[in-house]
Amino acid sequence: MIPTRYRSSVFLKAAMAVTGAVMVLFLIMHMVGNLKAFEGQESFDAYSHWLRVVGYPAVPEGGLLWAIRIALTVSVVVHIASATVLALRARRARPQRYQTRKRVRQSYASRTMRWGGVIIAVFVLYHILHLTVNVIAPGGASDSPYERLVNGFQQPLVAVFYIVSLLLVGLHLQHGLWSVFATLGASSGRREPLLRGGATALSVLLIAGFMLVPVSVMIGWVS
Amino acid sequence: MNLTLRIWRQKGSEDKGRMVRYEVADVSPDMSFLEMLDVLNERLTLEGEEPVAFDHDCREGICGMCGMVINGVAHGPEVTTACQLHMRSFSDGDTIDIEPWRAKAFPVVKDLVVDRGAFDRIIQAGGYISAPTGSAPDAHSIPVAKADADRAFDAATCIGCGACVAACPNASAMLFTAAKVTHLGLLPQGQPERASRVVRMVDQMDAEDFGGCTNIGECAAVCPKGIPLETISRLNHDLLGSLSGADAK
Ligand code: HEM
Ligand code: SF4
Ligand code: FES
């Protein structure tokens, strides 16, 4: 049995905030790393290799990469599990819907957290199969991560799927990033506009950085 | 002005309920929304029909009884209670939809009347201070900073109307609960039970089948007393802090 205090809606929400924040920190590193694509194949492939050997011999080869992967997997599982429990509770809390409903303040981002999150999960799965474990290889397989990336994004459908998914991640974070502070008890009337503004700015920067790569391949800057 | 009303009619908690259409003629713009319903009810009574049941008491915006969702917004187009809403906010020929608060924790008793007993049970779980009785102590024996006193007072103005629950897409009672946690948590008298209070109140809130908060903000947007969204962050702060505290049960 899980003690009551760890089943409370506030605690589950806090778990989502912490795991969401872990994923965002990862996304920032990931985005900066991706920009190596603009330094050419050699630099990009070298970065990919470096990720696997960094810290060696102090940590085993691939050790750091695996530590990150485990932390991320735990975060994803806790985040989705809590989201599911809370979504089911919310649905149970209003068994009968309103005949007429008008929105007063809610943003598009806040309203699409649940379904947006599900689509993001599907995207993440595709992305891992594509560029990490290399199971699907749209545009042709290769041993070079750089070539896999370019081959993939030269398929317009793949590039568009990535771009649309990135927009959804941006939306998720626009609400999510300010929500982290509110959920962890750090928001106040005075801080709220700053937090919301900062969340929007960081989401835009992050997603713009990610989008540069597929867009550049699409229009032929990177090939 | 002449209006068409579509009102939720439900004979009792077991009845399925449905929207019923009524025409109301010669409504004065100076009437309150409840007075307009009174006019309809007088006519229904004369015609031998069952009048529309709705809750009300003070009719001056302080008791929190008159909850109803008007055209899809809790308490209608103005940020106030239904009794303080005036017909000048509508125009001749309008169709107005009227429904009860909808939440599992607020079962419909009849028509627009819901049972808000869940709020009382949340307060009973910890929304008070335990103080020795006796003659009143001197008002200035425990100094309170002006800023804290003002904030606590603002939070204490919650009238328990339930609009926050009605408006929340998750049917969450966080704004209501947070208002009480903030009110008592800002005052010296509230400190001894501060940690256990928030734990007990949140547990009760969950047990009553309210949903969880996702920081959407619909609650604060319709609250007739202007309880701010930041009170919810205060509650979160106290609850997470209490998890490490010994006071929590
Ligand atoms: C994988 C499937 C995902 C699902 C189903 C999902 C679902 C949700 C839901 C329902 C919320 C709560 C909405 C709210 O409180 O307004 C949320 C919050 C959040 N999500 Fe996700 N999400 C997913 C993936 C992600 C990813 C990949 C990230 C990070 C890059 C992320 C970051 C966040 C953050 C930072 C929050 C805010 C936490 C808080 O409210 O305090 N989520 N997510
Ligand atoms: S917080 Fe506002 S909307 Fe909610 S019960 Fe109190 S007065 Fe009503
Ligand atoms: S009847 Fe008392 S607040 Fe409306």
UniProtKB/TrEMBL annotation, chain A:
Q: Name one GO cellular component term.
A: membrane
Enumerate the transmembrane spans: 12-32, 66-88, 115-137, 157-178, 199-222
Alphabetically, the GO molecular function entries are: metal ion binding
Query: InterPro entries, alphabetically?
Result: Cytochrome_b-558, SQR/QFR_C/D, SuccDH_FuR_B_TM-su
User: Which CDD domains does the record match to this protein?
Assistant: SQR_TypeB_2_TM
Q: Which compartments does it reside in?
A: Membrane
What's the protein here called? Succinate dehydrogenase subunit C
Q: Name one Pfam family in it.
A: Sdh_cyt
Q: Which UniProt keywords apply?
A: Heme, Iron, Membrane, Metal-binding, Transmembrane, Transmembrane helix
Signal peptide residues are: none
The answer, when asked if Transmembrane helix is one of the entry's keywords, is: yes
- Where does this protein come from, organism-wise? Allonocardiopsis opalescens
Automatic annotation (TrEMBL), chain B:
Q: Which biological processes are named by the entry's GO terms?
A: respiratory electron transport chain; tricarboxylic acid cycle
2Fe-2S ferredoxin-type domain residues are 1-102
Q: How is the cofactor bound?
A: Binds 1 [2Fe-2S] cluster.
Q: Cofactors per UniProt?
A: [2Fe-2S] cluster; [4Fe-4S] cluster; [3Fe-4S] cluster
PROSITE patterns from the entry? 2FE2S_FER_1, 2FE2S_FER_2, 4FE4S_FER_1, 4FE4S_FER_2
Q: Under which main EC class is this enzyme filed?
A: oxidoreductase
Q: Which reaction does it catalyse?
A: a quinone + succinate = fumarate + a quinol
Gene3D superfamilies, per the entry: 3.10.20.30, Alpha-helical ferredoxin
Keywords of this entry: 2Fe-2S, 3Fe-4S, 4Fe-4S, Iron, Iron-sulfur, Metal-binding, Oxidoreductase, Tricarboxylic acid cycle
Pfam families named among the record's database cross-references: Fer2_3, Fer4_7
Span of domain 4Fe-4S ferredoxin-type: 149-179
Molecular function GO labels? 2 iron, 2 sulfur cluster binding; 3 iron, 4 sulfur cluster binding; 4 iron, 4 sulfur cluster binding; electron transfer activity; metal ion binding; succinate dehydrogenase (quinone) activity
> Which EC number applies?
1.3.5.1
Which family is this sequence assigned to? Belongs to the succinate dehydrogenase/fumarate reductase iron-sulfur protein family.
Name the chain's protein.
Succinate dehydrogenase iron-sulfur subunit
Organism encoding this protein: Allonocardiopsis opalescens
